[in-house]
Task: inverse folding
């Protein structure tokens, strides 16, 4: 490896020791939910689903989808999905945004994460019987596995998700 490549290589090794040149993460296609292996070296480029050729979501990203896309994704994703039902005017929701973003990065490849604004998507709030914000629901293959409401510590939240995914 020449020096230029070594420099590029060390830049690509992030602080967690993840080698983004070679590592891959599973992501679910937004279209029909197929699991794809997403090479971390391709972040920033267009990566498409091996089955349907639609663009794949980036690993570790908290998805914000239209209500039709969100319902379809909940039904079809082959990976578990954590959904954060929030309102932009709710203070505990703001606190939990960062907690959810951290979790999305930490559990990338294992859990898909999505955020639904209940003020903009009241039909989804009704469909999933969300009566308070923030409410977090874990879905697996279209079925609800568990839910919880209200702010909690990062540690408790990580534990809750880990015990159900
Ligand atoms: Zn696909």
Result:
């Amino acid at each position: 490896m020449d020096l230029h490549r070594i420099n590029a290589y060390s830049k690509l090794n992030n602080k967690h020791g993840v080698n983004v040149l070679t590592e891959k993460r599973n992501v679910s296609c937004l279209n029909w939910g197929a699991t794809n292996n997403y090479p971390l070296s391709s972040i920033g480029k267009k990566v498409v689903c091996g089955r349907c050729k639609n663009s794949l979501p980036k690993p570790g990203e908290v998805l914000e989808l239209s209500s039709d896309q969100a319902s379809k994704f909940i039904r079809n994703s082959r990976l578990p999905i954590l959904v954060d039902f929030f309102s932009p005017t709710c203070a505990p929701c703001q606190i939990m945004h960062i907690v959810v973003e951290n979790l999305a990065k930490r559990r990338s490849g294992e859990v898909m994460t999505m955020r639904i604004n209940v003020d903009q998507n009241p039909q989804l709030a009704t469909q999933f019987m969300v009566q308070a914000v923030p409410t977090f629901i874990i879905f697996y293959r279209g079925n609800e596995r568990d839910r919880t409401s209200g702010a909690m510590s990062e540690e408790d939240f990580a534990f809750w998700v880990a015990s159900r995914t």
Q: What stands out?
A: The helical segments are 3-12, 67-76, 91-106, 122-127, 154-162. The pocket of zinc ion is lined by residues 29, 31-32, 34, 49, 51-52, 54 (CB under 6 Å).
